[in-house]
Amino acid sequence: MIRYNLTCDNGHAFEGWFSSSDDFARQAEAHLITCPTCSSASVTKQLMAPSVSTARKKEARQALVMDKAQKETITKVREMVKLIRENAEDVGERFPEEARKIYYGEAEQRGLVGKASTEEAIALLEEGIEIAPLPMLPDDSN
Question: InterPro entries under this entry (predicted)?
């Protein structure tokens, strides 16, 4: 998404979000963009500086959000998750099936990681199979 600073012909400033520059041009030409203050459909983009994400900016944002103790905790949890993954077999979607095989003695005892729906995880726990989710940490999905 692209955020544009916009101005109507009456000088009111506002912002709009568009999927692309062409999307803005198409909507503006069709008079689909209107000023929230006066409803004018004569809208233009204002000059904007590009927003470039850098590692320094990312660190600055994290510094605002997390203190030193929180950062250390996240680092330790990340190391723990890495250690678990390094010492386990990733069975993906077969996790519930493989966990049951181990629990019922149909497969050798070993560490597993994989995926299970909430319903599958509850069923495993109700059967007495000890499982635990691995935490999703900041930046894991970015």
Answer: DUF1178
Coil, helix or strand at residue 50: coil
* CA distance readout (Å), 98 to 48, 102, 132: 54, 6, 15
Distance from the first to the final alpha carbon of the chain: 16
Helix (H, G, I), strand (E, B) or coil at 15: strand
Whole-structure pTM value: 0.50
The DSSP secondary-structure symbol of 114 reads: E
Structural tokens at position 140: 């894991």
